[in-house]
Write a structure and sequence with these properties.
7-stranded mixed sheet; about 425 residues; 5-stranded mixed sheet; alpha/beta; binds pyridoxal-5'-phosphate; globular; Aspartate Aminotransferase, domain 1; Aspartate Aminotransferase, domain 2
C-alpha cells in the first residue's frame, strides 16, 4: 500500500463497516479453505512477491494524510506507530475477520493480552461480571484477584446451568464471559441461551472460543458480541508462537483498541507472519484434529484401562445434542479421560508414550498430553479438585494430526507396558 494514497482511509463510511483493511481482499463469499488461504494476504505490488511481507518496523512516515487522520481521530485506519497498527497486523487481522465472519479484529501478543484488554474495555467502575467456575487459570486470576481488588464484583457460576446464570445477573451486570468448551472437562457453554440472556439484560457476551476455533463454530453468527482466541493454540497450530485475537463488530472492536494501546500487548510483525502462514492451513488441520479425536475417543471408550472419557462428540456427553447441532458434528481435538490406577498410573502412561509429548498447551500439529492435577489445577487441594470433577487419573490430550493408526498404536503399546509389563 502506498502511504501517500490516502483515499482508503479518507472513506469514513468504509472504516465503520469493516477493517482496518490493507487492500480489502476479505474473500467473504468464499468457502472456508479459500478464506484461510487468501483472505487478508497482501501481495507487494512493487516486487510482485506473493505473500505478505514482514513489515518489521516500529514507525511510519508522518505526512499530510497521517496528520489529517490524527486530527480526525481515525488513527486506527492509519499507519503511525506499530503498537497502533502495522501492515503485518492488518493482513492477519483481515484473514481472521474473514474466517470469524467479523467486521473487525485485533491481534495481541498473547491470549491473556486479548482477554485483559477486552474485559477492561467493556466494564466500568462498580460493574458486575458473570463468568464460569470452569475457567482458564489466567482468566480466573485476572477476574478473581485483580478485578475484585478494584471493586468489580464477579459471580462464578456453573456454565451449563442457565437458571443459575440468569439468577446471578443483576442491574450492574455488564458482561457475561464464558469459554465455549471448558478445560479440562470439556463442558459446553449454552451459547444460544447466553445470547438471549445478554440481550434481555443489556450486557455484552464475550466467548473464549480457543478450544473450538472458528472452523468448528462461528460464535459471532450466533449473536455473541466478541469472540476471543488464544491463537497460541489451534490458530497458530505449530506450538511456535504466543498470540491472541479478538473479533466482533467494528464499533465494539474500536472500543477495545484504545485499551490495547494503554495495556500494550500488540503483536510483533514476525509473529503476525507466522500466524498468517499458519491460518492458511487452519481448516485442513482442524478437520484432521476433529477426525482423529473422535476416533481416539471411541478407541478409549472401548479400552478396559480407561474409566471415563470426556469428549463432546460422544453421545454420552451431557450436551452432545446441542453441540452436535451447533457445530454440525465438529467437536474439537481435545479429549480428557480417566485412567484406572489414578494419578500414579497416569504419570506412568505419559512416560511410555512415544508420539504424544508430555507438555502443557494444546492445538499443535503434534499430540500434547498433560495431567490437570500437576498443571492447570495444581494449586487446588484434593477435595477442591474432587468437588469440581477433577478425579484421580484424569488426563488431558490435545490430539494432533498424526496418522490415527499410529496414535492408537502408541496408546496401545503404552497401556500394555504399564498394565501388563510387556
Ligand atoms: C482457553 C484459554 N484461553 C486463554 C488462554 C491464554 O492464552 P495465552 O497463553 O496465549 O495467553 C489459554 C491458555 O492456555 C486457554 O487455554
Amino acid at each position: 500500500m502506498d502511504i501517500k494514497d490516502d483515499t482508503w482511509f479518507k472513506d469514513l463510511k468504509r472504516k465503520r463497516v469493516s477493517g482496518p483493511e490493507i487492500n480489502g481482499n476479505s474473500y467473504r463469499n468464499y468457502g472456508e479453505s479459500t478464506k484461510c488461504v487468501h483472505a487478508g494476504q497482501y501481495d507487494d505490488p512493487n516486487t510482485n512477491a506473493i505473500g505478505t511481507p514482514i513489515f518489521q518496523n516500529s514507525t511510519f512516515y508522518l505526512n499530510d494524510s497521517v496528520y489529517k487522520a490524527i486530527e480526525e481521530g481515525s488513527t486506527r485506519d492509519s499507519f503511525i506507530y506499530s503498537r497502533y497498527g502495522n501492515p503485518s497486523q492488518w493482513a492477519v487481522q483481515e484473514k481472521i475477520s474473514s474466517i470469524e465472519n467479523a467486521e473487525s479484529s485485533i491481534v495481541f501478543s498473547s491470549g491473556m493480552a486479548a482477554i485483559s484488554s477486552t474485559i477492561l474495555a467493556l466494564i466500568e467502575k462498580g460493574a458486575h461480571i458473570v463468568t464460569s467456575r470452569d475457567l482458564y487459570g489466567g482468566t480466573y486470576n485476572l477476574l478473581y484477584e485483580d478485578l475484585q481488588k478494584y471493586g468489580i464484583s464477579v459471580s462464578f457460576v456453573d456454565m451449563t446451568n442457565i437458571k443459575e446464570i440468569e439468577e446471578s445477573i443483576n442491574p450492574k451486570t455488564k458482561l457475561l464471559y464464558f469459554e465455549s468448551l471448558s478445560n479440562p472437562l470439556l463442558k459446553f457453554a449454552p451459547i444460544p441461551s447466553l445470547v438471549k440472556l445478554a440481550k434481555e439484560n443489556g450486557c455484552r457476551l464475550v466467548i473464549d472460543n480457543t478450544f473450538l476455533t472458528p472452523y468448528n463454530l462461528k460464535v459471532l453468527d450466533l449473536g455473541v458480541d466478541i469472540v476471543i482466541n488464544s491463537a497460541t493454540k489451534y490458530l497458530g497450530g505449530h506450538s511456535d508462537l504466543i498470540a491472541g485475537t479478538i473479533s466482533g463488530s467494528r464499533k465494539l472492536i474500536d472500543q477495545i483498541w484504545p485499551q490495547m494501546l494503554k495495556n500494550g500487548g500488540s503483536l510483533d510483525p514476525h509473529a503476525c507472519f507466522l500466524l498468517e502462514r499458519s491460518l492458511k492451513t487452519l481448516s485442513l488441520r482442524m478437520r484432521t484434529h476433529n477426525d482423529n479425536a473422535l476416533e481416539l475417543a471411541h478407541f478409549f471408550q472401548n479400552r478396559e484401562e480407561i474409566k471415563k472419557v470426556y469428549y463432546p462428540g460422544m453421545d454420552s456427553h451431557p450436551q452432545y445434542d446441542l453441540i452436535n447441532h451447533l457445530t454440525d458434528g465438529k467437536f474439537s481435538g481435545m479429549i480428557s479421560f480417566e485412567i484406572i490406577g489414578g494419578d500414579k498410573m497416569a504419570l506412568r502412561l505419559l512416560k511410555e508414550l512415544k508420539l504424544a509429548k508430555e507438555a502443557t498447551s494444546l492445538g499443535g500439529v503434534e499430540s500434547l498430553i498433560s495431567l490437570p492435577f500437576n498443571t492447570s489445577q495444581a494449586s487446588l487441594t484434593k477435595n477442591q479438585k474432587k468437588s469440581i470433577g477433577i478425579n484421580e487419573g484424569l488426563i488431558r490430550l490435545s490430539v494432533g494430526i498424526e496418522d490415527i493408526e499410529d496414535l492408537k498404536y502408541d496408546f496401545e503399546q503404552a497401556f500394555n507396558k504399564i498394565f501388563n509389563n510387556n
